[in-house]
Amino acid sequence: MMLRFALGSFGLMLTLAVPAMAQTRHNTDAPIDVASERIELQDRANRAILSGNVQIKQAEMTLAAARVTVTYTGQVSEGSPQVSRLDAAGGVTVNRPNQSARSQYAVYDLNRRVITMVGAVTLRQAGNTVSGGRLSIDLDTGRATIDGSGVRSGAGATPGQPGVQSSGGRVTGRFSVPKRNTQ
């Protein structure tokens, strides 16, 4: 099933900010194309729930997950609802030119133009890899920041709901080193 959503004009302490991993500005005003094996429209709640091999594309960025809840404002532009938020779960991947990220959960807040990914996050770009608990990608600036916070389960967590651990995590990474001329 394929749907297209139109966007309206929308205007932590981080332990690591990696300027070398910055990207160019993303076109957050571009339409969002979605495809999945199943879609459930909940018009009274202003949302659609997509499940089964969900693929979402906006401009040059793609998001894939097992399940995505699309929240929209209730306003319609050019025959499509205006999306305000995407909540993704289950093997989430976000791919942008020369950059890819993986996590358990992700939230794309279209009003703030920020993607937040949590739970076993890995960010890769140009031979560099950084892993941590939470990643924030500012789509206006292209800046990606990652910290050690993460998803917690078990003791201390609400049953059936992931929680955010405020400390105790670490950020790890491996960066490539350019070949040097030794003469």
Could you give a short description of this structure?
The chain has 183 residues and is mainly β. The chain has strands at 2-5, 16-17, 32-35, 38-42, 47-58, 61-77, 80-96, 99-109, 114-125, 128-138, 144-147, 150-152, 163-165, 172-174. The strands form 2 sheets. Strands 1, 2, 3, 4, 5, 6, 7, 8, 9, 10, 11 and 14 form a 12-stranded antiparallel beta sheet that branches. Strands 12-13 form a two-stranded antiparallel ribbon.
Q: What does the model show?
A:
The chain has strands at 2-5, 16-17, 32-35, 38-42, 47-58, 61-77, 80-96, 99-109, 114-125, 128-138, 144-147, 150-152, 163-165, 172-174. The protein is mostly beta strands and 183 residues long. It has a single domain (2-151, 163-172), classed as Lipopolysaccharide (LPS) transport protein A like domain (lipopolysaccharide transport protein A fold). The radius of gyration is 17 Å and the shape is elongated.
